[in-house]
Amino acid sequence: LPQTEINLQAGSSPVGEALMHQNSNPKAPAMTQEEFDHARQIYFERCAGCHGVLRKGATGKALTPEITIDKGTDYLKTFIAYGSPAGMPNWQTSGEFDEATVDLMARYIQQDPPTPPEFSLEDMEKSRKEIVPVAQRPTKKMNKYNIENIFSVTLRDAGEVALIDGDTKEIINIVKTGYAVHISRMGAKGRYLYVIGRDARVNIIDLWMEKPDNVAEIKVGLEARSIETSKFKGWEDKVAIAGTYWPPQFVLMEAETLKPLKIVSTRGMTVDNEYHPEPRVAAIVSSHQKPEFLVNAKETGKIWTVDYTDLKNLKTKQIDAAKYLHDGGFDSTGRYFLTAANSSDKIAVVDTKESKLAALIDVGKIPHPGRGANFKHPKFGPVWATSGLGDESISIIGTDPKGHKANAWKVVDKLEGQGGGSLFIKTHPKSHNLWVDTTLNPDAKVSQSVAVYDIRDLGKKPQIVDIAACADLKDDGAKRVVQPEYNRSGDEVWFSVWSAKDKQSALVVVDDKTRTCKAVIKDARLITPTGKFNVYNTQHDVY
Ligand code: DHE
Asked: What is the pTM of this model?
């Protein structure tokens, strides 16, 4: 496994906070309560992202006691200290752990994994707040903002989003959200903005208020990554859905109030017919063809369709794809959902009209499309593209089974990017540019710049634009450049220059035509900006 993938997964998990001590396995080496608690914390911060909360394995190997006790403390210590070519980091030789910590963790993983508590509908309801009840919310837009060009910017380590006026580049408000806030999505009508934190807190921000702010919130579990709302005709802004990593489930809610209505567990069999107790919910999209959500269950490799018209007689379907499902988006027509099965190095395609798998396509190593990029290839017609973490390739897939049948669901072209460690790729229907970041590439020159291709001539080498240099930051932070996002009219591309919490960060706005820096947004409140979500583009799946 490349280091880039490990770095992405090794984010801290909020679940550790919620665990009580459990009795240790009698066959495992002894630990004091204090040691156990300390190790548990480290496990959630450093190990759970790859090995899973229950240690059943995902990106990393399974580490349950029947496996680890047989290996013994000395073997485990060597593995933790020196790592492995298969992707285990070298925790001791890299200087991250000292010898005592390595010994502690080797003993800890021989204990039974503590199981975090479940999270019921009642727990959710107890946490819910209608900050501004629906009856007291504005009945029309109360501000002068051009709402369609507002950007919601994730301030990752602040647990906030910045709402930025895309026209004036001014900050409208900084809104408190969940811990290590993850993504924003727009309601179908373009009024409500939904935000979810890693701690599974969901916030609704009402963009009609004089100063847009939170109107409702709920906690839907202990750890989460995804949120979406109903978009099918007649169902706009009716139902919201949030998926959680822990517990492994998703919940359907009333969209305007977040009142929880129904929980569905994703526990079950994998595509290889093995039981998995912890299939985390990754990307969720909202069908334009049917009143359905599409829900990625990461570890089972199954994509669920969830019909939201009758929650009492809930109709779901599970589409076998591949492991481990992560992120994805629609093709330009909105009919096909293309999503990464990252450890299989594949893109799965679901035909949302038929609710069936249309294809499983081999692409580069560890695809990570975000929502991907749709454009017209000069030779192959409508295509969708993904970059990835594991290598420099950008795979371009034909998406037009009607007009370009021979190319549909095939990699029709492959571009060479700056290197591995790419997280996001973006273009816009009005643009000829295809922008590719390399945020997690180990070479600072590469992680601080982006490659931009001319869609009309993809054989031409990309131009490399040094985005971090544009930002001209006062201190020497990491300055990783992440996630291109277009403005409403498609003539500007916004990038985050992402440094550590205590270092200056910025947003850089690039003129799409000239590919030169047009504006830099700096503000002491812009702490660790990462994802950016333009209201119109997010509402209408423009990417
Ligand atoms: Fe993300 C989307 C999970 C780390 C920025 N991220 C997603 C989605 C999932 C996910 C499942 C798709 C949601 C959807 O569409 O419904 N992300 C995870 C992880 O499990 C992971 C690897 C580790 C973790 O501990 O969370 C992880 N993600 C990160 C980051 O470190 C990033 C780069 C910075 C940050 O803000 O945390 C990051 N993820 C993003 C962004 C999107 C995203 C910006 C939405 C992209 C889009 O264009 O839609």
From this structure: 0.95
